[in-house]
Amino acid sequence: MITMKKVMKSYVIITLGIIVVAIAMHFFLIPNDIAAGGVSGLAMIVNSYFSFLDIGLLMLIMNIILFIIAFILLGSSFGIKTIYASLGMSGAIWALEHIYPMQVPLTKDVLLAAFIGTMLSGLGMGMIFNENASTGGTDIIAKIMNRYIHMDIGKSLLASDFIITIMASYTFGVEKGLYALIVVILNGFIIDYSIEGFNIAMQVFIMSSKYDIIAEYIMNELERGVTLFSGEGGFTNKEMKIIYSVISRKEFIKIRDYIKEVDPKAFISVSNAHEVLGEGFKRIDAE
C-alpha cells in the first residue's frame, strides 16, 4: 500500500530531477545549439526557424500529443507523474529563460558544454525515470519500449532520439549534429547507470555462532527481513545457521559495526544487488 509519505517523497525526487535537467538545458545545451534529442531537441530546432516561439511553450504543446498514449499503455500513475514532470520541465525552462536569459553561452567550448550538460541531464532524467515517471516526449516512447520489449531506458531513448539528432545536423550543421549524437549516446548510458545506482542494495550472508541476536537486530533495529539457511562447516563439520538479508548500503555499515561488537569472529559475504523488488524496496508492480 502506497502511503502519502512515499508519494510526497517520489514527487520531491521528481522535482529535483526536473531542476537538474532544466539547468543542464538552459545553461549548457540550449545556448550551444546542442539538440540532444527528445521534444526539447525538437523544440530547439523549431525555435531556430520561429524564434518568437519560446522553447518551453513548444515543449508543452508537443508533449500533449503523447500524454494520452502514456495513460493508455503505461497506466494512470505513470501518466500523472509524467504530466507533472513535463509541465514542471517546461515551466522551469520558461522561468530560467525569463529570469536568467542567456545572451552568450557560459562556455564557447561546445565539447565541454556537451559533457557537463549531458552529465547533469542524464542524472536528472535518471532520478525521474527511477520514480516511474518521465519528462514526456520521446521519454514516453522509451518507457514504452522498456515496458514491452524490456530494453534499458537509456538505450530505448537513444533509439527514439536518433531521428531528431539527424534533423539537428541539418538545422545546426553537421558538427553540432555530431555533438548532439555524442550527447544522446552518452545521455543514454548515464541514465542507465544512474537508475542502476539508485537501486543498488547489498545482499549479505552472515555466518556466526550468535546468529540469533544478529538476526533479531536486523529485524527489529533495521526493520529488514532475514532468511536462515542450515549449513555445515567443511573444516569443522559443525552445523551452523547462515543469515541472508538484503539491506541498503547505509544499513550495511550499521550491521557490520554491530557484528564487530557481538561476534568479531563472524564471517560476512557481501555483494551488490542491482535491483530489488518487493517489501521494503521498490514495488514489483511499479514497472
Write structural notes for this entry.
- There is one protein chain.
- With 287 residues, the protein is an alpha+beta fold.
- Helix content is 64%, strand content 10%.
- The chain folds into two domains: 4-198, no CATH class; 200-286, Alpha-Beta Plaits, CATH 3.30.70.120.
- It contains ten helices and four strands; from the N terminus they run ααααααααβαββαβ.
- The protein has a four-stranded antiparallel beta sheet.
- A hairpin with a 6-residue loop joins β2 (227-232) and β3.
- The radius of gyration is 23 Å and the shape is elongated.
- It starts with a helix and ends in a 14-residue tail after the last strand.
- The model has no long low-confidence stretch (mean pLDDT 81).
- Residues 224-278 form the DUF2179 domain.
- Pfam families: DUF2179 (PF10035), YitT_membrane (PF02588).
- This is DUF2179 domain-containing protein.
